[in-house]
Each structure stands twice: as structure tokens, then as C-alpha cells.
Amino acid sequence: MECRTGCAACCIAISISSPIPGMEDGKPAGVRCVQLTADNRCSIFGHPDRPAVCSGLQASVDMCGDSDQEAFHILKRLEEETKPGF
């Protein structure tokens, strides 16, 4: 499966604990990554500064569903289920 252009669910819905250029402490869940452009594309895609966790994500039906909205729902649920103390 290929990423849906402009979806950006994984760049917004989930927390990222790795440093991101412009977000040295990572980003909390639900916060838009500062590296997203206005059309929801990663401005550091393919650059060495891109966190390994980001480049390691692979689009899949289990993670992305059938629409951008479904991807947000799935990723938000996964984020909540993986919080300590859930």
C-alpha cells in the first residue's frame, strides 16, 4: 500500500518521542508536526534529518484504513491503547 498524498494522519495523530527538526523534544499526539507543509506533505521526506521512526512507518490497511478519516481514527485508538497505564 502507498501512503495517501496529503493524509498526514501519522504526522498528526500519534506521538513521536524522537527529536524532529524544529521539535527537538518530539511531538505529542494530536499535534501537527512542524515539518508538514500546507498541503500535508513532509518537508524533510528523504532527508537524513527525518527521524527513523517516521521513515520506518509503512502504510498498511491495518494502520491507514480506507480513508484519511479512518487513518486518524485507527491511529488515535492505537495511540491511546499504547499509553502507559491504559
TrEMBL record:
InterPro entries named among the record's database cross-references: Puta_zinc/iron-chelating_dom, UPF0153_domain
Q: What is this protein called?
A: YkgJ family cysteine cluster protein
**From which source organism is this entry?**
Paenibacillus illinoisensis
Pfam families linked to this entry: CxxCxxCC
Give the top-rank taxon of the lineage listed in the UniProt record for this protein.
Bacteria
